Amino acid sequence: MTRPGGRRWLADGLLWLLAVWPLLVAGLSPPYDRSALLSLAGGLALSTGAVAVGRRFPVVALVLVVGGSLLDGNYLFVIPFFAYLAGRRAASAVPAGVAFAVIAAAGTVLNLVLLGTGAATWFLLASVLLFAGVLPWLVGRYRRQQVALARARRRHEEARDRERRGLAERVRLRERARIAREMHDSLGHDLSLIALRAAALELAGDLPAGHRSAAGELRASVAAATERLHGIIGLLREDNGPASVRPAGGSVADLVDGAREAGMTVRREPAGQWPELPVRTAAAVHRVVREALTNAARYAPGAPVTVTLDTDGDRVALDVVNGPPPAGPLPGPPSTGSGLLGLTERVRLAGGVLTAGPRADGGFTVAARLPRHPPVPDDASPEPPPGPSGDGVGEAERRVRDARRRVRRSLLVALGAPAGIAAVLTLVYYPVVTAGTVLSEATYARLPVSAARAELDGLPRRPLGPTGTDRAGCEQYTDGNFPLAVPTWRLCFADGRLVSKERIEQ
């Protein structure tokens, strides 16, 4: 398999052979003389230098071969290739544009002022520069933009793939966090009730001492397991994530009844049927009551608990108050307070405020004030579908759009610029060449042979061409054919008289 460096050397070698082949064919053809060999050696050196600098300085290589055409016309065959490579390799169009402008200006001065070759030769050389230099360069620029567009599309697809994978990962992590949150809340609550039952056995006076000791060990083990559960699963929780809209473990009334069956002294206020609440508000109330009952069972076993739920218009007031533990606080792991922090955030997401703190009598109060119809949080919006929604995808799409715009612009320039420049050259060339040289067909027909030059009515003031006469010494005129203004009539004079006239067959 050819390495990239080897491919570059091979491509440069082929370009060098292409550049020197016309020079070798012309230079090695007989007759042989010293000037031809010197010209061939100079051409080979110039071609080698152009190929050597072509990758780093493609515009310089183009200028070298264009300059070489002044010494050897065979360079015209390789100008299109170096012009294409200049457009393909150069990152900016400015250097090539400046180079073409300088070459055009210098060629105009050289041909029209210094060498006096005439407008026809200037037009021919300008056309060669346009179609052998500018047009291939524009094609190279277009090809470069096509490659850039393909790369931008590839980056765009890669960004889309990364976005899809990231979306799937976010969904998976969110689901893990939701499961962990529900496990933490539900299982932690159940373990607290088990610890409460163990504490009741530990305080029972009709059990043997060994059973009470075992019950105490069970309570301590359950409390430690609850803390470990809180520490392990709490790492996976997203307390600021979207709140669940389905209370775990049934209604708040069922939650209170379950705690009462576990041995807690719980009283509901008001004692009758509690009001129906919207789903999201009911979920937040359920969470607050469950967390408060769990804390009361863990840190104040045996203390009476009052759960008060009241609605006043569009406001919901919830208070969970427990008294001090009858036997004093039981030994166990200290509270980290993270449960109340998560509870505060959950109530905030529901549009409410939660306050919690100890009471003067040694008890504890958890109070929540929520709107009956909470606002929809921003993070409750549906998950966006896979696609260009991330910053990386948006940037890739912008690059693709820019690349497409550059490709379309390059194509329009490649098609329109040569035509526009050719039109400008023609509009400049035609008036200059034809001024004072146009002989109409009607005037030509009226010119009498053998008449004196001064008697010829309608004869243009100057013949066509740089010298005005052909090899036979006759003058040539045009009928004004656009855009080339080629010679149409030949008039021959002798001793100041018209001796013959004829139409030049094209």
TrEMBL record:
A GO CC term assigned to this protein in UniProt: membrane
Pfam families, per the entry: HATPase_c (PF02518), HisKA_3 (PF07730)
CDD domains: HATPase_UhpB-NarQ-NarX-like (cd16917)
EC category name: transferase
Residue intervals of the Histidine kinase/HSP90-like ATPase domain: 284-372
Keyword Membrane: yes
GO molecular function: ATP binding; phosphorelay sensor kinase activity; protein dimerization activity
Domain of life: Bacteria
KW Nucleotide-binding (keyword) present: yes
Gene3D superfamilies: 1.20.5.1930, Histidine kinase-like ATPase, C-terminal domain
Domain Signal transduction histidine kinase subgroup 3 dimerisation and phosphoacceptor stretches: 175-239
Enzyme Commission number(s): 2.7.13.3
Designated name of the protein: histidine kinase
Organism: Micromonospora endolithica
InterPro entries: HATPase_C_sf, HATPase_dom, Sensor_HK_TwoCompSys, Sig_transdc_His_kin_sub3_dim/P
